[in-house]
Design a protein that fits this description.
homodimer, 413 residues, Aspartate Aminotransferase, domain 1, Aspartate Aminotransferase, domain 2, seven-stranded mixed beta sheet, hydrolase (chains A, B), pyridine nucleotide biosynthesis (chains A, B), pyridoxal phosphate (chains A, B), kynureninase activity (chains A, B), pyridoxal phosphate binding (chains A, B)
Chain lengths: 413, 413
């Protein structure tokens, strides 16, 4: 049985059109890294760029680098590079700040574009920061937040749609890896005159996203998961061009001013997406992200999606053959149309098992109370990585070679 | 006359107790850098730390570094390191985000601590982002913003003090380099029950600041000027401990939650300053800032202040002897008590002169329309640097060796 799986992994890796892209990452020896959906691995392009940014740009050229190395335009330049990965034509995406800050901006802007609608609607299972920021924006803008499961959203909108300013959801359930239907939910929102905001943290770089084509209004996402921009890499914000004349941002920092160096008395927002710039951006982290994005050069996101599905499909097969007998239950959907770039397995000793895997060089993470979560990144994960992880997990579990301690949350999504 | 100045520079540099600290910076050959109040130079401690952070921490240890290299506590750890430079006992300062975002947090929190007071008061000559954010917070919290010059503030508070929620000022006029009286204005605010917020961008690391002793309520500042943390280095926020039970932050990101890994449904703010954490911080930029702060190890801020005054005093003397005859007017006060760590000179061809200086290796900046601004950093500027700049400026001006083009704003404060 395992020989069959080995042969299959051999075949799938040998015919993988993205196999060569793995060399664009500096993966540590002896580690199978299946946590790129928390923190992407180090792209080989990053260290030489950072070396240049630190020594030549900052150290030698000093303040002049804002112009000579065009630090000034980096938030828009990097934004456009991310835009190319999420179906956004240039001029609609800015990079900077954190996802939380970008969520605050997008939700505030959306609320102000629908001033007479009292409801902000979000997912009860949304990543916490999305829920917390929705509550905060609701409070500051005098709106109420309703938490409605994606499956119930169309019905909710049928009933209360004229009260809804914006729906705020993610394409990916970060626990289960189930995909929600961005197209259908965006349409449902628009049918009732609401706006649609999508959090792409677990989607950007992992699959094609078609923001422009789907008519999405706002989107946000982080730079450190599938974009591999480094720990805490700047986030991004997309605002559809049709809102550019009318949207208002709450964080009216000087770099988003129409004349940032004019030192004017009053805030006049820059045209377009530039008004979502806030303060001076963290250039080291931002230019590391820019370098990291070159790992996508010449890579077709349809290929990324195909390989991601191949990896997760293979993982699910390994899980069925090797892990189901050990008491693991696959949480991630088998249907490829609704499967994101991760495999989540349920086991009561998730925490101890993830620790035992890590001790033997397979890095994944867990979500309380009982989910083992394995992210695959089509740019640098192989089918053999998947097989190694599944085989080791089977061996550890069957041997009882782990500490069945109570789960303890502890890492960063 | 110039020989006298040279002898004086020799003497002052030879007897400078901070002379050895200059070696903690990697200053480029052939450059006199007097723009550290826009972007501090590269501390020697930064490159090896970044190398380690990128290759070993991110590249090799990957996601585990949140724990094993304690990335998680970095915002609080770096915050305390900055706190030590601004008179803040530990546990009151957090590092992260940009000054603009921190201003938004501090102003919002202050407004909510004084719910019945309709006025936010700020400086009409404040750095633009401070004014813009005050307007935005006023709008979102239903308050009015009044712009009152520091000199008029005591009288304004006598008349309208019971209406004032918070005063928001900087100790330093970023154009002229004049110091405002933090102690007196904070007292004046407190006398009428208002809170005091100080923007320390041009003060932190340049002079002693006594936040705790003066009873300041909130303070913010950037990491990239006198703290030399690198381009766009994370900013900081100070909130006095006495507010920690009651303050509320608008940007309720997950990292500021009491149980950030608990994935709870509702936001419960962390105790203390930690609730001012927002999203995942840009670790590369944040740890570069942390390394940069080691340039202050063993350095007494009273010595920093004494040397800064020696440098600016010497600059003013050079200006009087060499530059006044060429039509330059000193804008920075001669009185040391009210002089910050810069010298600003007025000349109608400020822009062209700053360009001509830069072409010959003396880097300073200008503020529209007619201010040449020279920052001195006591950690790495020498009296000979000052003399070189003044002598070159005298030579360029008397020879007419510059382009008398109209001023054109263009660099970052």
């Amino acid at each position: 049985m395992t020989q069959q799986l080995t042969d299959l992994a051999d075949h799938l890796d040998a015919t993988d059109p993205l196999a060569h892209v793995r060399d664009r990452f500096l993966l540590p020896e002896g580690v199978v890294y299946l946590d790129g959906n928390s923190l992407g691995p180090l792209p080989a392009a990053v260290p030489p760029v950072l070396e240049d940014v630190v020594h030549r740009q900052w150290g030698t050229d000093l303040i002049r680098s804002w112009n000579t190395h065009d630090w000034w335009q980096a938030p828009l330049r990097v934004g456009d590079a991310i835009g190319a990965l999420i179906g956004a034509a240039p001029g609609q995406t800015v990079a900077g700040d954190s996802t939380s800050v970008q969520l605050f901006t997008a939700l505030s802007a959306a609320a102000e574009l629908r001033p007479d609608r009292p409801l902000l609607v979000t997912d009860p299972e949304h990543f916490p920061t999305d829920r917390y920021l929705a509550d905060s924006v609701g409070r500051l803008h005098g709106r109420q937040v309703r938490r409605v499961a994606p499956a119930d959203l169309p019905e909710f909108l049928d009933e209360h749609g004229d009260q809804v300013a914006v729906i705020s959801y993610s394409p990916v359930d970060f626990r289960s890896g189930e995909l929600h239907d961005v197209a259908a939910l965006t349409r449902a929102a628009h049918r009732v005159g609401a706006l649609a905001l999508w959090d792409l943290c677990h989607a950007a770089g992992a699959m094609p996203v078609h923001l422009d084509d789907l008519g999405v209004d706002f989107a946000v996402g982080c730079g450190y998961k599938f974009l591999s921009g480094g720990p805490g890499a700047p986030a991004f914000l997309y605002a559809a061009e049709r809102h550019h004349d009318s949207w208002r941002t709450p964080l009216s920092g000087w770099t988003g001013h129409a004349e940032p160096f004019g030192l004017q008395a009053d805030y006049v927002p820059a045209p377009g997406i530039a008004r979502a710039r806030i303060g001076t951006p963290p250039i080291l982290s931002l230019l590391a992200l820019e370098a990291a994005l070159t790992a996508f050069d010449g890579v077709d996101l349809a290929q990324v999606r195909a390989k991601s599905l191949s990896l997760t499909g293979f993982f699910l097969r390994c899980a069925e053959e090797l892990l189901a007998p050990e008491g693991f239950e696959a949480v991630t959907p088998a249907e490829p149309e609704i499967r994101a770039s991760q495999v989540s397995l349920r086991h009561p000793h998730a925490y101890g098992l993830i620790q035992a895997l890590a001790a033997q060089g397979v890095v994944a993470d867990m979500r309380a109370p009982d989910i083992l979560r394995f992210g695959v990144n089509a740019l640098c994960t192989s089918h053999h990585d998947v097989l190694t992880a599944a085989t080791l997990l089977q061996r550890i579990t069957s041997a009882g070679d782990y500490d069945p301690v109570p789960q303890e949350p502890g890492t960063v999504t």
